[in-house]
Amino acid sequence: MDYLKKFDLSGKRAIVTGGGRGIGLEIAHALGQAGASIVIADLDANSAAAAAAKLASCGIAASHRGIDVAKPDAVTALADELNAEQPIDVLINNAGIARITEALDTSDADWLATMRVNSDAAFWCARAFGRHMIARRWGNIVNIGSMCGMIVTQPQNNTAYITSKGAIHMMTKSLACAWAKHNVRVNAVAPGYVTTEMTISPRNESSFQYDRWLEQTPLGRMGESHEVASAVLFLASPASSYCTGAILSVDGGYTCM
Questions:
Q1: What mean pLDDT do residues 90-97 have?
Q2: Architecture of domain 99-114+134-190+205-251 in CATH?
Q3: Catalytic site includes residue 254
């Protein structure tokens, strides 16, 4: 058995939502290094273009699309367009937002926006691209969940975000069961605290909060984007061919506590 070959994505085409920067861009880089051609999809069309150019400079075949994945009709149109060109084999549902507020301080607008981007959009993407995968009887979806979908984080208790990521985890399991008979696998990665633009602000605003994060993480440090990307690569590749409905924790041991 050639085990390294099991991570090879040569000839496959992957789309990464929210791929213009951060974890999404790192995931795109990992899949591209494994041989996949990449479509960067991002709300910020300029970021998407810059990300695709960065990948191309590394020898990775990459294109880009500006899209609001919170608009289901736009998602369906994009899925149809891309699959008409060349099938999308791998969908990475990475787009997401985090608005850090306690439950009583969460506005209707913030709640609805969090659900629409983090949960609704992931389903719309899975439905639109999954329809084509089912027709071909092959496909692979990796959702980016969170340890917040499993436990309540402290000292901040962000009810909207936690709820949205719990929904991602259960959607992953539901779709995995529904689509296994079509040879379409659906898994999720659940990152812990990772060094990204999304976590820089809380760290700068509250050293107490940051210290608590590290105290509650057995490995005693923040994760890095490449560590999440490595887990996604595993789930997106034939190396994980007997995995579906899995929620893979990449949290430094946080959810063990």
A1: 98
A2: 3-Layer(aba) Sandwich (3.40)
A3: no
8 Å CB contact between 128 and 75: yes
Distance CA 26, CA 10 (A): 18
pLDDT for 85 beyond 90: yes
pLDDT tens digits along 187-200: 999 999 999 876 66
Domain spanning 10-96: which CATH class is it, in words? alpha beta
> Which tokens belong to 231?
């887990």
* C-beta of residue 69 within 8 angstroms of C-beta of residue 41: yes
Same CATH fold assignment for domains 10-96 and 99-114+134-190+205-251: yes
**Tokens at 27, concatenated:** 């995931």
The tokens describing 122, both together, are 């992931």
Joined together, the tokens standing for residue 206 give: 């509250």
> Among 161, 210, 242, 254, which one carries the catalytic annotation?
161
Tell me whether the omega of the peptide bond preceding residue 155 falls within 30 degrees of 0, making it cis: yes
